[in-house]
Structures are given as C-alpha cells and as structure tokens.
Amino acid sequence: MKFKNAFTSFIARPVIQPAKKEARPVVPAARMPEAADAETRPAQRDEHRALSRLYSRQSAVIRSRICVVPRALQAPADDSQIFALRKCGNDYGLARMGADLTDEPLRPDGTYVFAIKASDPNTILLGKTTLFDTAIAAPARGQTPGEDADLAVEGHTSITHGEDVVYAGTAWFSKGALKGWSNSSGHYQPQAENRMQALTKFNQLLLPKEKFIAHHIR
After folding, report:
1. Which residues sit opposite 190 in a β-bridge?
2. How confident is the model over 37-87, as pLDDT tens digits?
3. In the prediction, which pLDDT does 145 show?
4. DSSP string over the chain
C-alpha cells in the first residue's frame, strides 16, 4: 500500500518544463550608405596608390646606394665647409650645415662637389672645390673663382665623411644660377643613366635633367 501511495504521489506531481531561452534579436551590422561607400572607395584607392608610389621611390633610392671605391678618403670637412642646396625661384642658395635657420643663405658661385647621402636622400650636400669639371667649365685648373674660396674642400668624401651615397657629382654656379651639373666623382663614380632614379622628386627640382652633362667614367 505504501508503494502504491508513493507511486500515485509521483504520478500526480506536475511536470516542470525547463524555461525556454528567449532568442536574441539579430542586429544587422552597421553599413554605410551606398553614396558614402562610393565616395570612400576612390579615396582609399588613391591613398593606396600614393603609398605604393612612395614605397617604390624609397625602394629605388635604397637600391641605388653607392659605396666609396677603394682609395684613400679625402680630408674631412667641418660644418662650416658643408652646405645644403636650397632654391627660391630661379635663384640658388647655400645653407651652412648646423647654422641657424634665420641665417641668410650664401650665393653659390664657382664649382662645387655635391653628394646625396643614403642616410638623408632628400638633402643635397655641397662643398666648394678647387677642381673643375671640364665638361661644364674650363678655367685655369687650381683656381677657385668667386667669393669664399677659403671654404674649399678636397672632394666628395670630405663632405660625406666616407658614407654611402645615392648619387654624387659636380655642379657649377654663376652668381647664384645653376649652369650645369654632372656625375663627375672619382670616389663614388655614379653612372649617368641612374641619375633620375636616384634623385627624389624634390631633388629633381634642384638638379633639373636639362642641366645635366654626362661625365664618362674611365
């Protein structure tokens, strides 16, 4: 009897169903309007192209790194003999390395060796020289015309202190005007055909291709 009552009591108990979980509503991902998409995609493509061009230019500069040929380095120049090339309109100026930005640039006049260090491919360094690139000018050898003749350096490695460059050569100025430039450098010997690849867009404005005179390396 006790078993029967217990069984009856078990059957009579209400069956408790597990609580159903409420389904969470599916929220669609936010999406920009079609018109905004149409405006954003071209801008993103333009930015990607610009970055690609910049990377290609930087890669080209890195690939054109030039080391000093095996020979003795020239006497190093101090900061007072090294200049950075500047340009305002058609007039060129020389900013002394380490000088205050408010200092008046010097007017280049005569023959200068120039070099663009691989560590700073946007700056054209110059130093006055007593030697002339005869493809541009042919005054008496050993004579430095113009002002500041006492600033003359021995050569290209004087202004680079032997560092690698992306390009180097010789430039000739007359009273602030660029008359010509070449790839003449005995210590670096850059190839004439590599000049535009090695120059950044900014430096191509300072050294225009129409002023270039090729120097044939012997």
Report:
1. none
2. 555 666 777 776 766 665 555 555 455 789 999 889 999 999 999 999 999
3. 44
4. -HHHHHHHHHHHSPPPPPPPPPPPPPPPPP---HHHHHHHHHHHHHHHHHHHHHHHHHHHHHHT-BPPPSSPPPPPP-GGG-EEEEEETTEEEEEETT--TTSPPBPP-EEEEEEEETT-TT--EEEE-SS--TTT----TT---SS-GGG--SSHHHHHTT--EEEEEEEEEETTEEEEEE---TTT---GGGHHHHS-HHHHHHS-GGGB------
Q: How many whole angstroms separate alpha carbon 157 and alpha carbon 74? A: 6
What would the two tokens of residue 81 be?
């003999």
- What distance in Å separates the CA atoms of residue 168 and residue 179, rounded to the nearest whole number? 17
Hey, which residues does 32 pair with through a beta bridge?
none
Which residues, in sequence order, are CB contacts of 15 under 8 Å at separation 6+? none
For residue 95, the cross-strand partners are 84
R_g of the chain, CA atoms, integer Å: 35
**Cβ neighbours, 10 Å, residue 35:** 8
What type of residue sits at position 82? I
C-alpha distances in angstroms, 76 versus 54, 153, 161?
33, 8, 6
